[in-house]
Specification:
Blueprint lengths: L4 E3 L6 E8 L2 H9 L1 H4 L4 E4 L6 E6 L8 E10 L3 E8 L2 E11 L5 H8 L4 E9 L6 H20 L9 H5 L3 H7 L2
Length: about 180
């Protein structure tokens, strides 16, 4: 398995991408509806219209605790930007959705006779470079879980964490050099 992440031109943001055989609306629902978010990441409590929710991550082992997430941007079907305190710092994350073939969803679905392909771009802004060897594989795992949930495919669990994802650590560490 090869890494899908890279640092942006400035070397500050880690960007990972997936092309997903699903309409943007379905992926958006898995990012913004607590019951669907829970199928691959964790659920949230609270009213997103207030700009803050409490997220309880449920995919990783151990006792989960809720973290407050601040919603900075929420453009339905296109962009979700949030931040949360992680240890000493703050993680700011964006998920951008685009039509992979440059056409609108209805046009692609009607002409191709299949579901549209959506480009999913996860951006970890100002990624801590000293943590990139852990952060990169983690986002690979979560994105694969999202894709599996949205498409009805494989949803990787912790049983493949060490062999499939942590084996990417050196390649991610090399990005910081």
């Amino acid at each position: 398995m090869a890494i899908t992440g890279s640092l942006d031109r400035d070397g500050h943001d880690l960007v990972l991408t997936r092309s997903v055989l699903a309409p943007r609306a379905r992926i958006w629902d898995h990012l913004t509806r607590s019951d669907l978010l829970a199928t691959w990441f964790g659920n949230f409590a609270g009213d997103p219209t207030t700009g803050r929710v409490q997220v309880l991550m449920n995919a990783e082992p151990g006792e989960a605790s809720a973290s407050e997430y601040t919603i900075h941007a929420c453009d339905a079907g296109e962009l979700l930007t949030v931040s949360s305190s992680m240890g000493e710092g703050t993680w700011r994350l964006s998920v951008e959705l685009d039509d992979a073939v440059g056409a609108d969803e209805d046009h692609v679905a009607a002409d191709a006779g299949t579901e549209p392909v959506t480009q999913v771009r996860l951006r970890h802004q100002d990624v801590p470079i000293d943590m990139i060897q852990h952060v990169g594989p983690g986002w690979e795992w979560y994105l694969d879980r999202l894709v599996g949930t949205v498409t009805g495919g494989d949803i990787p669990g912790m049983e493949v964490w060490d062999t499939r994802y942590m084996s990417l650590s050196e390649d991610y560490a090399a990005l910081a050099r």
